[in-house]
């Protein structure tokens, strides 16, 4: 089980060793590395110094200033085309690293429209859908909710809730974002709360899956907790650790 891969194809190629299947909870793309300002699409285009400036503004929650600064850098550049070229390069490498079988859903920084071009036989992409793995029913919901970051795959609360509702009762509930619980949403490094889903929290309380698994928050205040009988686990920031989280039953 991995999440928040953010360009780490080297470790991804080994992540499924010894497992019946690999489950990926999204965020394959590396646009901007908050720890290493030389890595990602943004510094490749504009350099590490400008990447550091954007990180500083976002960390200070000065989102409007960050957008204005970014707009000046992008002036005269076809942003959509430049980003798509870079994302395609990353996807070609990352999808080639997936073992067989892999079950994957999108993160908030992913571009779902491109995935069908790169998902090979043996990789199953699910969003608002279920799959049986090892005798258990897994439900998958990808993407994130709308936020000041304005990442590519953010959707409205009602649309997200409808995808959660479509799953019904499952044994393992797999999402990119956590349920709306403060301890699971607070990132201790940038010192801010990420967005979580109230609909997801309600579904956990109502349907009581064995596990609720997610990522998105890279350095959470709490990596796991119980909500009723459900074990809720942040499976980790794979980009930095290179280590998958193992689900055994």
Automatic annotation (TrEMBL):
Calcineurin-like phosphoesterase domain segment(s): 2-220
Pfam family of this protein, just one?
A: Metallophos
Supply one GO molecular-function term: hydrolase activity
Per the record, the GO terms for biological process are:
cell wall modification
Q: What is this protein called?
A: Metallophosphoesterase
Which species is the source of this protein?
Answer: Streptomyces uncialis
